[in-house]
From TrEMBL:
AMP binds at residues 222-226, 263, 372, 423. Pathway: Purine metabolism; 3',5'-cyclic GMP degradation; GMP from 3',5'-cyclic GMP: step 1/1. The active site is at 222 (proton donor). Residues 465-486 are annotated as: Disordered. Its cofactor is a divalent metal cation. Binds 2 divalent metal cations per subunit. Site 1 may preferentially bind zinc ions, while site 2 has a preference for magnesium and/or manganese ions. This is Phosphodiesterase. It comes from the Eukaryota. CDD domains: HDc. It catalyses: 3',5'-cyclic GMP + H2O = GMP + H(+). The keyword Magnesium does not apply. Zn(2+) 1 binds at residues 226, 262-263, 372. Its EC number is 3.1.4.-. It comes from Sinocyclocheilus rhinocerous.
Amino acid sequence: IYISLYPCDIKELFCTATGLSRNTTISLLDSTGAMICETLHTSVFGHDYGCGLFSHLSDKEELFQNVLTQVAEQFSRAFKINELKTEVTNRLAMLEKRVELEGMKVVEIEKCRSDIKKLREEMASRNNSAFYLCSSFLDDNKKLTPRRDVPSYPKYHLSQETVEALRQPIFDVWQWEPNEMLSCLEHMYHDLGLVKDLNINPITLKRWLLCIHDNYRSNPFHNFRHCFCVTQMMYSMIYLCNLQEKFTQVDILILMTAAVCHDLDHPGYNNTYQINARTELAVRYNDISPLENHHCAVAFQIFSQSDCNIFANFDPEAFKQIRQGTINLILATDMARHGEILDSFKQKVDYFDFTNEEHVTCLKMVLIKCCDISNEVRPMEVAEPWVDCLLEEYFMQSDREKAEGLPIAPFMDREKVTKPTAQIGFIKFVLIPMFETVMKLFPQIEEVMVQPLRESRDRYEELKQIDDAMNEKKKSENLTMGGKKK
Ligand SMILES: [Zn+2]
């Protein structure tokens, strides 16, 4: 839908719809009708210009002129063009390619038109500045504006069985609807005593969680269910490792909240893509953990709205501490920093000191990292579908990289990667070493978390052997049949 927001695409759409050649000159007028620019091009879209075509307009053409004017107005309001120039240029190139390949049909143009109308109404109804600020971040019109009323998600009464299972890493994360996951998350904050001890408004908590849900995208992997999984694993670890005996309630709040927020508004394409494609996020954050910085920024934009600020009752000093702690944990989830963070933890673990702030901070970073990549800790039936989700997201990225002529990581290439090959290395060289280091501090995780990892590694190694044998067989068959093939 958003392709209609880019000037080049608008021009394409306009020309296709009116049957004019792409080389037609479309001129821009200001609101008094004075000529601004003889040709429609990217850089003029930062301003409130009308748009006119120098020929006699039919009704249909007038309609499209209207649409164009509306889009131009929205565009200039919502986007700061200078900051976005690089991003826009990249997107345009891609879109041009796509339009050429697919060709735009009239039906699609009609659909674009109605989508633009809907979008316009939506934007008109949300004329607060936070929305516009965020709309430049968010590709698909997510709602950062909190709901003014009390969230209406049905109060799911969690059964005693569910409440108990929720504390275990074996919890089946697939059988719950978003509303039920929201109730579970809400329950965790209550159950840990955070709401009571830290004086969190329970209605604000509901509204905040709902807003969190609305700001996760429906990616194959980095979606609200992933957020739920990571938070549920954190909750399990808090019990399993008796963290409430070692940490303050503020630390527990930071751990849980960072887990909830850690992938907010993830676009489904990783940092490497952001950097190589020179996206708006990469430009904004100077290629330094662009996604994690974005997740953090979105999280605190949500907190900046009083209806969603679960920290409203904290004094400024406490808020500062929570903000710093949460940012630190979300930024720690960038896997590019894995070695650095794990090494730092290894240096402390043998003489770990829970009264040393630096030690505790480092442990919290490792804990959120563990939870973020903890799917393989879960039972095979729960863990395995996540591998398919991750590969789907990877393939989406590598396909796009191919189309845009960007470098492709081998582990994302559908020609090269299989489920076992994707998992074995990751379990052996990332997961097990990290969890075994944490095990030095909390031996109780061996049985519940490390053992399942070892079993998963063994299972994928068996699967790989079967794959290899099949490929070997195919190869030799091809060799013997080689000369006889048609
Ligand atoms: Zn994550």
